[in-house]
Amino acid sequence: MPSTDSYDPEVLIRDLDENVTENHVVDFLNSHFRELEDLENLNSTLVELKENEQSLNEKRIQTQAKTSKVLQQALDSFNVTVNELENLQATRMELEDALADHCSIVVSEKPIEDSENETLMKKLVKLQQQVDSLERSKQYLKVLVVADELSTKAKQLIEKSPQKSLVPYTQLAHLARNVKSNSKEAGHAVSHLDTYLQQCVDTLWEDMKNRLTKKFKQTLEAFNWPTPIKVPYPPNTTDKFSAFRKAFTELLLLQRPADVEEVSKPLESKNSKEDNVPLPPLLPMQIMVEPLIVRFRYHFDSKRPTNRIDKPEWYFSHVITTIREHSPFLTGAVQAIVDDAGFEKYHAKNEFIRCLLVAVTRKLNNSVPTLLNSPQIFSHTVFETLQFDQTLRELHMYTPPGQDEWGGCVEVFTGKKEWFKAWLKVEKTFAEARYNEIMHSEDVWEMVDEEFPDDEYKPTKSAAKLINLLELVTGRYKLLPLFHNRIRFLIAIQAELLVAYSKRIDSAVDSFGNLSYSIVRAVPNVAATDITGVEGLKRLCRWLSSAGFISRTIKEWGEDSFFLELWHEVTVRAARNTGNTGNTGNIGAAAHNTGASPLPSPTSSISSTEQGQVTSSVNVDGAITVDEGTVFDDPAELFDNICERIQSLIVKNVSREFFNGLKAYVKKVGCRNISAITNVKTLAEIPNQILELNFGNGLATVWILDLKFQQLLSSKNRDTFATRNNWSRSDIYNDDFTRQQIPKLNNQSKDTTSRSTIELSPELYTPLSDLAHSLTFLSNNLPDRIFKHIYKDVSKELEDYLWDRILMKKHFSEMGGCQFEVDMEKGLFTIGKRWIRKPENYFRRLKDACILLTLPANQSKIESKSDDKLQQRTLSQVISMLSDDELEPIAIPKMLENFGVYHLTPKEAIDVIERRVDS
User: Fold this and answer.
1) Which residues contact 207 (CB under 8 A, 6 or more apart)?
2) Of 342, 674, 692, 909, whose Cβ has the fewest other Cβ atoms within 10 Å?
3) Are 353 and 396 in contact (CB under 8 A)?
4) How is residue 612 annotated by DSSP?
5) Among 752, 698, 741, which Cα is nearest to 718's?
6) Residue 333's Cα: distance from chain center in Å?
7) What H or E segment, with its residue span, contains residue 305?
8) Distances from the Cα of 476 to the Cα of 357, 399, 431, 469, 479, angstroms
């Protein structure tokens, strides 16, 4: 354990001093005696150190003496301070006792029996209250005196100098404003003063106004106002105009102080919210309009014959006429006065119109209760109001002073929800009644008598009338200034009419389809001919024309500027709502009684019925971009789907009629081609025939020439073929035909024989005639592009049917293939030549199959001197090529092209060749 001496401060300091001294001595010796030669200076260094030691001792003695003296002085000061603090503490206690005694004397909590015993504090408070009351009374009286002086001064100056009279008037107005701002702090008494001063301001203003109005009316009487003042002005009216200008300017000076300040503000000082705030009306313009309003009320608010609730156009026309008659004077002389007076933001003509519209809006408001009981008159009145508003906007370029937009007088009806709903209900009821009338008419699906271009749908009467009705509805709401009102009309009326019409067509198509493909055809009042043949096509074409005409028309409407603006507003609002709510951004369809509307909701909220993706987006910087689209995209798609469905029914109907007539041909194809010539020994036994086939209305005539064979297959080749193919012996062929020996005809081969001499199969006459009639009807009643599309689909159906039911189920000899080729080329392919340049291109698989079916079996059957490479191709070559295992699969289509086969796959080519009995 360490000694306790090690923790003694004096010991620690002494040890520390010894260590420091030791280090200092070592450093000193090292610095002065680095070498042995330095020891010679030892004596001098020692003397120097002793002298320093003596000097330091003297300084130490002096410092100790001074320190003792300073410490003694500090101790004396401390003792004096302690004594002073003790004295101050005693004094504080004495003062506290004295203050407590004094407070008990001044303030007493005991009840006071008389005023003489009141405490001093209460007396002082009471006196102060009296002084304050007297001071307030003095200020109150002073304000009253000042107000009276200002009012008197203004009245004295108004006759002599209206400009100078505004100074005391403005001072009085500012005084009233200041008192009002301090009324809350001043109490009840000042609130009475505030009311009194405001009354003084109003009374003074009315008095000044009445005096100046009297002078102004005198100048108007000099012009025989309200008689229109015509331009150019007579020479003797100079003095009258001078007096009018002076009186008009004086009234302009009388605008309320706040109004004057508002008018005089520069445009830069106004924010965007204040730009659309209407400016206060001009006093002189109100006075000028007063007699015109009196005249208006005399004619249209009294019991005069001109006051008819069913003739709103009368008072609208009266107002328009009044504006037109006074416009030259207003835009000329009056506008110059207004500009010179510093009211450049006012347009005299617009101000005149605004003052006149007060009478119009009052008339409309008073008429609404009566109009609600007369739906037709109500609708007529709103329509005339919209026309009136449009006339003011377009003809007179009217906007209220200080505003960028004007809601119009129609706001009387749209501003109140119940009145707007009543109007919407009236228009909807009318539209629905008209729609029902259209759809219940006897000629609902009859075609209109007007001429239309070949590439457009010719509408039915119901479609044309519906479009007219929709245009009428558009005209009813197109002039509405507010988006939410317009979109409600679009959805509540037009969208529902479009949906109802589409459902009507859709229902008719459903019934037609059910009857057409139902096994049980016994339906009351429905004949079989109504859904088959041309009669069935007539129904389908009329429905198709109706839906197509509606679709095309509303698509054109969608590109109109009005509906484009409507769509832009819809998408922008939807995008903003999406940005606020964080949803995926679907525009909901407004649900109605008839179902979901195919149009966007009129509100910015997202409906639970999602219709489609919003066609707008919000960029990172907050800018909204609107994609292409129209408000009618969805209803147009609705009708387009119906059109596609009807076109599909037309294709099936035409194809089915052809298939039904083709049954006899399907049964006899192949066997007829062989058995018909079984007993023919010479060509003389084949009669020459020319048959004429009339395809309806004399539109298509097909000449069938006589059948002449130049060379038949040799029995040797046929027997060889039969040996290789077990399926070659078919019951549909006569076995004797392969062994018939017919003499050759003067070295003429079969391939050099004209196939035009082969007769068209008689079993095709009826189906081809029906097909021609159907296609002719379709071409006469449908647009060219639609007809060609249907023809293409019908061709595809026929090709598939012939491929599956004949080519893939029958067997053909070379001559049988030639007969089938003639049936196709002279029969089926020629039907469409009137409308299609190369109708055979719609049957490319059949065309290629005919090439394979008509190829000679081998080279021995072709004249060696023939120069036609295509004729030198044989069936055996095709079989050899297709059965060559070493041939690359990719090369087979190229090889088939050498035979003239361009559209069959190798698999299809093999399937066709397998139908040859001589392969």
Assistant:
1) 155, 158
2) 692
3) yes
4) E
5) 741
6) 46
7) none
8) 22, 22, 11, 11, 7
Residue 830 host element (H or E): none
At residue 271, the pLDDT reads 45
- Inter-residue long-range contacts of 560-564, CB under 8 Å, 24+ positions, other chains counted: 562/474, 562/478, 563/630, 563/631, 563/632, 564/630
Q: Residue 352: what pLDDT?
A: 97
Within 10 angstroms of residue 688's Cβ, the number of other Cβ atoms is 10
Residue 611, pLDDT score: 41
Single-letter residue type at 871: Q
pLDDT along the chain (919 residues), means of 10: 48 59 81 79 84 88 88 89 90 86 64 59 83 82 86 84 83 84 63 82 88 92 92 84 92 66 42 66 95 96 93 97 96 94 92 96 96 95 96 94 91 95 96 96 91 86 96 94 94 96 95 70 49 88 96 95 92 75 38 44 38 45 61 94 96 94 82 36 33 30 28 33 31 30 33 62 92 94 94 95 92 90 92 91 93 80 46 78 81 86 91 85
Tokens of 193: 């003063």
Q: Tokens 């129209």, residue?
A: 630
Pairing of strands 610-613, 586-592: antiparallel
> What torsion do the CA atoms of 599, 602, 607, 613 make, to the nearest 10 degrees?
50
DSSP readout, 199-238? HHHHHHHHHHHHHHHHHHHHHHHHTTTTS---SSPPGGGH
The Cα 493–Cα 435 span in angstroms is 11
Among 445, 791, 549, residue whose Cα is nearest residue 650: 791
Amino acid at 555: K
Closest by alpha carbon to 607, among 591, 628, 629? 591
Q: Which among 499, 498, 426, 441 has a CA at the least distance from the CA of 466?
A: 498
pLDDT at 865: 40
Q: Please report the pLDDT score of residue 103 as a whole number.
A: 73
Residue 721, Ramachandran bin (φ over 0: left; ψ between -120 and 50: alpha; else beta): alpha
d(CA 417, CA 413): 8
Residue keyed to tokens 């109003």: 202
With 0-12 CB in 10 A as exposed, 13-18 as middle and 19+ as buried, what is 64?
exposed
What is the residue-wise DSSP string for 116-142? Answer: GG--HHHHHHHHHHHHHHHHHHHHHHH
Of 707, 672, 743, 721, residue with least CA distance to 856:
721
Residue 800: what residue type?
D
Cα–Cα dist 610/631, whole Å: 16
- Cα distance between residue 348 and residue 311, in whole Å: 30
Find the farthest-apart pair of alpha carbons in the chain and give their distance in angstroms, rounded: 173
C-alpha distance across the termini of the chain, in Å = 128
160 three-class SS: helix
Q: Which has the closest alpha carbon to 796: 761, 832, 826?
A: 832
By CB atoms closer than 10 A (0-12, 13-18, 19+), residue 329 is buried
Q: What is the DSSP string of 731-760?
A: TTS-GGGGG------TT--STTS-GGGSPP
Query: Could you tell me if 124 and 106 are in contact, meaning their C-beta atoms sit under 8 angstroms apart?
Result: no
What is residue 589's three-state secondary structure? strand
Compute the distance between CA of residue 276 and CA of residue 404 in angstroms, rounded to an integer.
Answer: 6
Give the span between the Cα atoms of 711 and 744, in whole angstroms. Answer: 6
Contact of 631 with 570, CB cutoff 8 Å: yes
pLDDT of residue 46: 85
The two three-digit tokens of residue 547, written as one number: 């839906």
Q: What pLDDT is stored for residue 709 in this prediction?
A: 28
Grouping H, G, I as helix, E, B as strand and the rest as coil, residue 456 is: coil
Q: Quick one: CA dihedral 859, 863, 866, 870, positive or negative?
A: negative
Helix (H) or strand (E) holding 794: helix 784-802
